[in-house]
Every structure is written in C-alpha cells, then in structure tokens.
Amino acid sequence: MMDGGFFGDAPLWLLLPLLFGGLALFALTGSILRARLRPDPHDDASEGYLLSAALALLGLLIGFTFSMALNRYDTRRDMLVAEANAIGTTWLRAGLAEGPAADALRRDLRSYGAIRLRLPDAENTGAIEDMSVTVQSRLWVRTRAVLPTLSQPIAATLVTATTEMFDAASRRR
User: Fold this and answer.
1) Are 132 and 120 in contact (CB under 8 A)?
2) Could you report the per-residue pLDDT of 144-172, keeping only the tens digit for each?
3) Exposed, middle or buried: residue 43 (CB in 10 Å: 0-12, 13-18, 19+)?
4) DSSP 22-54
5) What is the pLDDT of residue 4?
6) Is the pLDDT of residue 1 over 50?
7) How far apart are CA 53 and CA 104, in angstroms?
8) Please, which residues have CB within 8 angstroms of residue 102's CB and are 6 or more apart in sequence?
C-alpha cells in the first residue's frame, strides 16, 4: 500500500484551513515584495487588465461548474421519469391480463414500484438494488406465466414494456 503523504492522509476538514492559510500567506508575501520592488505606487495600469482577465476566467470556470451540475441533475431526472413511465406502462399492459396469475403479476409490480420509490432516500442503496433484482426475477416469472392467457400482440407489448422497465432500472443504476 502506498503512503499518500500528508495531503493524502489528512482529513478533508483540515485541508481547507491549511490551503486557505497558505494562499493568504503567499498573497501577503507577494504584496510585500511588490511594494519593495516597485518604487512608484501609482503604476497600476497593467494590474487592472490582469485582474479583469483572472476574474473573467474565474467566472467562466464557475459557469462551467454550474452547467455540469445542472446537466447531471437533468440527466438523473430524465432517467427517473423514464423509469417511472416504464413501470406505469407495464402496469397498464398487465391490466389487460385476467386471472390469478395476472393478479400476482400486478401485486409484484406494486411491490416493485414501492421498492424503487425507496431508492432515493435509502442509506444503503445496494440493499434496495438487491431487492429490486429479486423482484425483477419474480416479475419475469409472473410475466411468463401470464403470456399464454393473452393474445399474441398484447403479450408482445407486455414483454416489451417489462424489458423496458428493467432496462430503465439498469440505466438509472
């Protein structure tokens, strides 16, 4: 195992004050050296351009950071909506089937939806994902049991909706 040095092993809460203090020390040292090396204090024409360029670059960096965060949020929201739509479509297609196997399918779909709803607030998302995989296996068995009772076009749409629901969960994962 490699040693990370001070910055690799130090707690994060300690790094911020140390880095801030170091930057403040360097800024103070730079201003003292500038005052000693430049005899005319009114010769600040070039500093304005440098400061403007540095602030513009900082603004651009902040803009890119917010853009990336917003893009990530939008992507997550789109995936969540796609998964919810896939579950809803599967629920509607399962409603076309009748009999005890169809009732079991809808019951498992309801529990699958409840499990997926717990995912955003869960501390242990791995356990929720494991439960989702278990219920997905049961849903696939139930779907196969319902297929003989449906006409071929309706059975095909149920299988398509079920696989889209599983794919949406995989993309979100």
Assistant:
1) no
2) 888 888 888 888 988 889 889 888 888 88
3) exposed
4) HHHHHHHHHHHHHHHH-S-TT--HHHHHHHHHH
5) 63
6) no
7) 66
8) 94, 146, 149
